[in-house]
Amino acid sequence: MMPRVSLAIKVPAVAAVFLLAVSLFLSERVLSRLAEIQTAHLVTLTRVYLDGLSTALVDAVLREDVWEVYAVLDRTRQGDGDLTAAETIVTTPDGRVIAAGNPRRVPSASMLPADYPAAETLSGEIVLREPEARAYVRRDVLYNGRAVGAIHAKLDISSLLDERRRVLWTLVLSNAVLTLILVVTAWVTVRRMMRPVAVLAAHLEAGIAGEVTPIPSPAVARAGHEFRRLFAAFNTLALSCREREDLIRRLADEERLASLGRLASGLAHEINNPLGGLFNAVDTLKRHGERPLARATALDLIDRGLRGIRDMVRTTLATYRADGDGRTVDVQDLDDLKILAGPELLRNDLVLIWRNGLTGPVDLPASPLRQILLNLLLNACNASPQGGTIEVRIAEADGGLRLEVADDGPGMPARAVAVLVDTTGSVTPFGRGHGLGLWMTGRLIRDLRGTVEVSRSPSGGALVTVALPLDREGGIARVA
Q1: From CA 88, how far away is CA 83, in angstroms rounded?
Q2: What's the pLDDT tens digit per position in 308-361?
Q3: How would you class 119 by CB atoms within 10 Å of its CB: exposed for 0-12, middle for 13-18, buried for 19 or more?
Q4: Would you say residue 194 lies in a domain?
Q5: For residues 311 and 60, what is the distance between their CA atoms, to the nearest angstrom?
Q6: Residue stretches of the chain with pLDDT short of 70
Q7: Phi, psi of 50 (to 5 degrees)
Q8: Can you give the pLDDT at residue 268?
Q9: In angstroms, rounded to a whole number, what is the distance separating the alpha carbons of residues 369 and 48?
Q10: How many whole angstroms separate alpha carbon 150 and alpha carbon 58?
Q11: Distance from first CA to last CA of the chain, Å, rounded?
Q12: What CATH number does residue 410 fall under?
């Protein structure tokens, strides 16, 4: 994966690239224009030099007087201050040398050296050879409009090339210093501009990880006008989120109490029935306690009634007490939920098919797991029609625990599904009695690092499937 580069580095880097491109373009144009000016100046000086030399040599060339031609060349050898002739050769029209400025290298009567361009190559123009720092020119010597000879000159242009190099280095250094200054300025400026963005990003990331906190007032005061407006909007959103979380917690507590109240009502009914039998048994003992058969029957009735009440109370306490002891769930912990759901099942004349495939303890905390299954079971009771059927399946599968609750109701609404299966906690319940229980169930499942899916049951109702991974690191998952 490519490392992430901050905007404080990207912007100066892009600015540097643009500055380098502009500086290269401008340098190329300056150097091209300088070369054109130097060439034009050289052409002018060369034309003046060759015009004067041609006029002075015309008589000597007609006579092919070697000594007079050499004398003329010797007098003009230095040229003027801006033009230096490295070598000058006078030839006949066919290229035979009459005299040269350096007779030892180019003797008279020899042919023009091969390093000079051909006459058709020159054609009245200057040929520049920058690697040699030389320029070559040719001028015909005319008499009555007829070429009687030719002047070939090799010019020293090293001073022109030195000037170009000085200009080039000046441009390079100037552009480099200017680019460095602008890049540093851009980096400092962008870094200061991005500081409020970094503050906002840090608070957003903290909000994703936990509670959304407002940006402190000093940071808001240091930001620019645009960012102050943005920070104020974020702080308003943060306060709204905090109020929403507080409201959800209050509603969740109220829903929990309401659910407990409904269960308490059912439990009171379940306890009241055996109490009537207990009172009858006590009355029987009072009236017929001396009879062994009556006494045994009454004591058995009292024993069974008290055991039922004890089981009902124990199951309720186990479900709604805090999971501080880290106790793992066993088969009986889940089977006890049938007792708590009994009043709801009886009220709606529902049939419960209970399939508990566990054979021993499971490495998961008992209290949140019981609350998850009880909430799903009660939700199925509310969704099922009168006389319907609810099926619960519990089994170990894929290295974890799998819970399935199916009903034959109309199916779970999309909004309720969104509240239950939400993995971020950003979907809120949609009203009292309309999603709080599912929201609590989804939160408990996320705390246990589990997943939940909602699909259609074979009877057309809702099928809720919960998959909880077992703790393989020696500890039991903790639930907030």
Answers
A1: 13
A2: 677 667 666 655 554 445 678 888 878 878 877 777 788 888 999 999 988 888
A3: middle
A4: no
A5: 141
A6: 1-8, 77-82, 119-124, 209-210, 252, 255-270, 272-274, 276-277, 304-305, 308, 311-312, 314-326, 423-436, 471-480
A7: -75, -35
A8: 67
A9: 107
A10: 10
A11: 36
A12: 3.30.565.10
Q: What would the two tokens of residue 432 be? A: 């009292």
Strand partners, 451: 467
| Helix residue ranges, H only, 289-336 | 292-320, 331-335
Question: Residue 131: which domain range?
Answer: 7-165
Name the residue with tokens 């906002």: 200
Question: The whole model's pTM is what?
Answer: 0.42
Residue 99 near residue 124 (C-beta atoms within 8 A)? no
Q: pLDDT (tens digit, 9 = 90+) per residue, 149-190?
A: 999 888 888 888 888 888 888 888 888 888 888 888 877 877
Residue indicated by tokens 């006890």 = 336
Measure the CA–CA gap between 427 and 366, rounded to whole angstroms: 27
Cα(419)–Cα(410) distance, rounded to whole angstroms?
18
Beta bridge partners, 391, equal 353, 406
Q: Let me know if residue 199 belongs to a domain.
A: no
408, two tokens:
């034959």
